[in-house]
Design goal:
Length: about 250
């Protein structure tokens, strides 16, 4: 079984989109908001990919979530995506529930720590749900932002009685004077959640995202893939692919 970290994906995309926003406007919006902020997001993507792995069988996926954040930095949220139950094997839906704390520790440096529960409500017989803990540090410098992080899933029956560690680095660069951000990602998995014989694998992606001026929409394109040497039927879950995404945040 192999899945993704929704919380890290959303946080990264949000940070990249924010790189092209006007600082003065962001400050005004923060001053006008109350102690609790509720946001929502929806997306349609040509494949549900994260850590380079295809979880929608090469088919279109519909995704969306809701986040509730307090001014103290604590947050909770939920997110869901459609899956391809024929090729993936654990139902047609992934539901994630997560919570944690994020905030600035000094100028240009922020942290995010929390836990996420992956739930597959219509999976067949077997144990598929599992828990993962995550943490990351973000660094802002000019029009760029870099993030390094780790996610750890302790030993659980759904992971074959073993654990899983994932480490990654993300880089986003907003092009000054444009709504476009360039993104890069590299990750490394050590544990149950790979398609390799030695349970170790790298994944990667490089892409671009552009906000549509005057709307909550953004368009994204990414080239992504992962290592894998374990055949699963006739379908290659980790083959390199170009993924297109249309998303909106409210």
């Amino acid at each position: 079984m192999l899945t993704s970290i929704r919380g890290l994906t959303a946080a990264t995309l949000a940070a990249f989109a924010a790189l092209s926003a006007a600082p003065a406007l962001a400050q005004d919006e923060e001053e006008e908001s109350g102690p609790i902020e509720v946001t929502a997001n929806v997306a349609m993507t040509s494949e549900y990919r994260f850590r380079g792995v295809d979880l929608s069988g090469g088919e279109l996926a519909i995704q969306g979530g809701v986040d509730v954040a307090h001014e103290s930095g604590f947050y909770i949220g939920t997110w869901a995506s459609s899956l391809d139950e024929t090729t993936v094997g654990f139902g047609s839906t992934e539901l994630d529930i997560y919570g944690g704390w994020s905030g600035d520790v000094t100028e240009g440096v922020s942290i995010d720590v929390g836990a996420i529960q992956y739930i597959y409500p219509d999976a067949g017989p077997g144990d598929f749900d599992y828990t993962e803990f995550y943490g990351s540090v973000g660094f802002g410098f000019g029009p760029a932002e870099a993030t390094v992080g780790v996610a750890y899933a302790p030993k659980q029956d759904s992971l074959g009685g073993t654990d899983n560690t994932y480490v990654y680095a993300d880089l986003g660069v907003g092009l000054p004077g444009t709504p476009v951000s360039l993104t890069g990602h590299v990750g490394y998995t050590d544990g149950f959640l790979t398609f390799t014989n030695d349970s170790k694998a790298f994944d990667w992606s490089i892409g671009a995202e552009a906000a549509v001026p005057g709307t909550p929409l953004s368009l994204g394109i990414a080239y992504t893939g992962a290592e894998g040497d374990i055949p699963v039927g006739a379908y290659d879950f980790v083959d390199d692919a170009v993924v297109f995404t249309l998303s909106a945040s409210f």
